[in-house]
Write a structure and sequence with these properties.
Layout (H helix, E strand, L loop, with lengths): L6 H9 L4 H6 L33 E2 L3 E4 L9 E4 L4 E8 L6 E10 L6 E8 L5 E11 L5 E8 L6 E8 L7 E10 L25 E3 L10 E3 L18 E3 L5 E6 L25 E5 L6 E8 L7 E9 L4 E8 L7 E9 L2 E8 L9 E9 L2 E7 L2 E6 L9 E7 L12 E13 L33
Antiparallel strand pairs: 1-4, 2-3, 3-10, 4-9, 5-8, 5-10, 6-7, 6-9, 11-25, 12-15, 13-14, 14-25, 15-24, 16-21, 16-25, 17-18, 17-24, 18-19, 19-20, 21-22, 22-23
Length: 462
């Protein structure tokens, strides 16, 4: 969001979890043959990581070319593009709870492109393991060398290392010197939370519940007027796309690429755009909540390209505490994506089949957020679909509900206009001892220039 910094970066990372191309190719890679016994700590387990032997030891997924120009070191590098593609290889003999370090160099050939070097933890049958995805992203014009140490997740028996480029602008990106080694220093998976600006006021005691029978109450809700996800990616979320009926149904409108109506989008700085394409809507709790059970009875917007989302969000410029429910997942309206974050650079995410969400009926989306001990349980219609034990937030956060348009990972919005519907929202605080209340720079004010709608922009029930 406006406060959801670098959404274009973060959601491309999440999108890599299930791109159909990778789904069909990522597990067909032959594993390097390594001697039995512990793997050596100083050895690069990636064979031909500098592409000096062209594509030897890599499985080619397409749109990957070995070049002798634009190299980081040695005589060769890998050029990715212009369409999505990459290469990968599996490494046997890496078990669970092993600290490893992924490293490599990459750059964008043109502005807006991104290169990725990633690692997936796999079980013995080559199935991706939840919470076992780790990535390095590159989008600068010059080569950058990056490294990330991580601990393999329970059930790991091998690690898939890959290089990849999203469709993006149909140009090129480059990678070189890919390595995976045993050992390393783990980043703090729960860094300290520094308070920036005033502390948020405490939320009212007891259970929060709103069925919107009295409209959208400014004492309970803010209406977002912000843009995030990258310049020229979308026209933001707008008060003009928020409505509520007299019987208490909130309508959050998304306008796709075919929209030609009177609504006009906004840029990151609040300036008005020439059209209303790729504009969405979001309402946000006025107060911040921490551990608790969050429930929403809703219908998603049933079109690709627009994301129907429910999320908590706290970002102070150093940490990014967030819990997401998002549809579509893996560019499919029959799937839903659940994600937890504590910093921008990594997340724990899962894509789950849920074809019923486009059946036209109401569904209850719920997550139970625990901070002591830390975990998030995700439910749909009271059925547990996933539990995240890593990258679990602790900072009290506002709760967002909305429709927005990412760059690529949700598909292309080839439609005019459609809606997400909200029937009711319920938050039951747990008040666990791991909760943290901190400021993130927001003043709590509403109106022009604040990122929130003024009172005159709240919709009257109709």
């Amino acid at each position: 969001m406006n406060k959801k910094t670098n959404r274009s970066f973060r959601f491309v990372v999440s999108a890599i979890l299930g791109l159909s191309m990778l789904s069909s190719l990522i597990y067909s890679v032959p594993a390097p043959s390594l001697a039995a016994g512990p793997l050596p700590a100083d050895m690069n387990l990636v064979k031909n990581g500098g592409f000096e032997q062209d594509k030897a030891d890599w499985e080619d997924w397409g749109s990957a070319t070995v070049v002798t120009t634009d190299v980081q070191s040695g005589a060769k590098a890998l050029k990715l593009g212009p369409t999505e593609g990459g290469m990968g290889q599996k490494i046997d003999g890496i078990g669970e709870n092993t600290i490893v370090t992924l490293s490599g160099a990459g750059k964008a050939g043109t502005p807006g492109e991104k290169a990725w070097i990633g690692a997936d933890c796999l079980d013995a049958s080559d199935k991706k393991l939840a919470g076992g995805k780790f990535v390095l992203g590159f989008e600068s014009a010059a080569y950058e060398q990056k490294a990330l140490s991580f601990r393999t997740v329970p059930g790991t028996r091998k690690v898939q290392v890959y290089v990849y480029k999203n469709p993006d602008n149909g140009k090129f990106a480059y990678v070189d010197d890919v390595a995976l080694k045993i050992g390393g220093s783990l980043p703090d998976d729960d860094p300290p939370i520094k308070s920036v600006g005033p502390l948020p006021p405490p939320h009212p005691p007891g259970v929060f519940f709103d069925d919107f029978k009295n409209g959208i109450d400014p004492e309970k809700w803010l209406i977002a007027k912000q843009q995030w996800g990258g310049q020229d990616v979308n026209g933001g979320v707008l008060p003009a796309n928020v409505a509520v009926t007299r019987d208490g149904i909130v309508e959050l409108t998304g306008n796709g690429d075919l929209y030609s109506g009177p609504v006009r989008g906004i840029n990151r700085d609040g300036s008005v755009r020439a059209d209303g394409k790729r504009t969405g809507a979001s309402i946000v709790t006025k107060y911040a909540y921490a551990s608790g059970s969050y429930e929403v009875r809703a219908k998603i917007l049933p079109k690709l390209g627009a994301v129907s989302a429910l999320w908590t969000f706290f970002n102070n410029g150093e940490v990014n505490h967030e819990i997401d429910f998002e549809a579509p997942g893996d560019k499919s309206l029959r799937k839903i994506m659940t994600t937890t974050w504590v910093v921008e650079a990594r997340n724990t995410s899962q894509v789950t089949d849920f074809p019923e969400q486009i059946d036209g009926n109401w569904h209850v989306y719920r997550f139970d957020w625990h901070t002591d001990p830390k975990r998030v349980d995700f439910y749909v219609d009271n059925k547990l679909i996933y539990t995240s034990y890593t990258n679990v937030p602790r900072a009290a956060s506002k709760f967002w509900l909305g429709v927005w348009f990412p760059k690529e990972w949700a598909g292309t919005p080839n439609f005019t206009t459609d809606k997400m519907y909200i029937d009711w929202v319920k938050i039951t605080p747990f008040l666990e001892k791991g909760d943290v209340r901190a400021g993130n720079g927001e003043t709590g004010e509403i109106g022009p220039g604040t990122g929130w709608a003024g009172l005159n922009e709240y919709p009257a029930p109709r």
